[in-house]
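Handoff note, outgoing to incoming analyst
You'll be picking up this chain. Sequence as last confirmed:
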Amino acid sequence: VLIDIPASEASFNSITIITFDSLDNVLPVRNSLNNSVNTINGKVVLVKVNGTIKNVTFSFDVLNETLANPQCVFWNFNLFDGLGGWDDKGCELPSKKNGTVTCHCNHLTSYSILMSPSIPAVLRVPLDFITYIGVGISMGCLVVCLIIEMLVWNAVTGNNTSYMRHVSIVNIAVSLLIADIWFIIGAAISENEKKDLAACSTATFFIHFFYLALFFWMLVSGLLLLYWTVMVFSHMSKPAMLAISFSLGYGAPLIIAVITIAVTAPGKQYIRDNDGVCWLNWKESKALLAFVIPALTIVVINLLILIVVLFKMLRRGVGDVTQPDERNALVVIARCLAILTPFFGTTWGLGVGTMTAPNNLGIHIVFAIFNSLQGFFILLTGCFAEKKVFCVVTKNSRLHSFVIRTQSQLKYNIPTLQYQWRYYRTNSGTTQKSNLMSSVTESSDHLSYQAPTPKEKSENMKVPFK
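Most recent structure output, in case you need it:
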């Protein structure tokens, strides 16, 4: 164990240092949260001076390098009614490298390093691989979803109901895509040995904001569904619906994210400092609740909305007061919410579990799997759950293939084709030739078809001459 006391702090006459090799067998491993799943993974050092020291640094050799999540702790005699316990107040972990953990503290007592046996080193790499691959798959599905929405937008937004449904889907996909991008940025910052606190706080802010935006746009979809189902005789204008939707979808998350960082950042309790993760702090300030409470509240509200809408549909029938296109859009919205709401609720319930119970390897793996499926479920329910979207995509694909095939045939097989004539019997019994098929002209890059005029149609019988 190495102890570094700055010269500016050397205002004492004597110092006593005692190092215990086996005191970990005597002192219990309970911490301030009464959690006993950790392990003392270094020597216990007792330092006493006849003065006051507010700046001291310790360097401990790690005893078991398979353990993770190191914490710098001291023995707090005031915990648990005088029984005492390990506490990390006033201590931070600047670095961990080459089997050595450095602890910086602003007071003196009995110190050691307390580490969680959460994920063995041999499993951390595969878990990171699963996480990054999963996020990559999710981002790929979201990009495909946005491309499809761009291609079919004019064909599937013919009424206000369909228009607002697709606005919500696009913003849900955009919010999750940007949140995943910032998640990767935050992970890259966390991997650095010396974490940039400003950059980590920035990444945490945007991750918090866009993940909240994802849930609030889910709430927008639920409220629009409730409005169209219950307020059947009230018609809000499209600009008004867009204004309310964007205010709720992005305004509410922005307010929550700004208040969270304004309250917790001055006390350096905005992000997690103990394990280097760029995410909201849980242990000291409970800043994570600024994400958990709104997200789970929206999940509950959307589930209640689905129950009300289902009751209304079964009792009255949504087809009695809506056009077929609008009725289909309402059914698609209800189906989308019925799938995405419990799925997102389960996913982020597991995400919270990874923060509050980091020692549970199963939660980490299941969360990584669910996280990788978020983009896929948005693509599935947001795009292909609507028959009109699927038909437009497949129709465009078949039409493009047909045009290319027809151009090839005209260019190479029948280059002299110009007109196709048919003969019809007129009212007077005579035979007249009419270019009802009009001219099919050849071009190097397209086909043109000129329809017959109404006059040409009226002058000819509908019964062909044999």
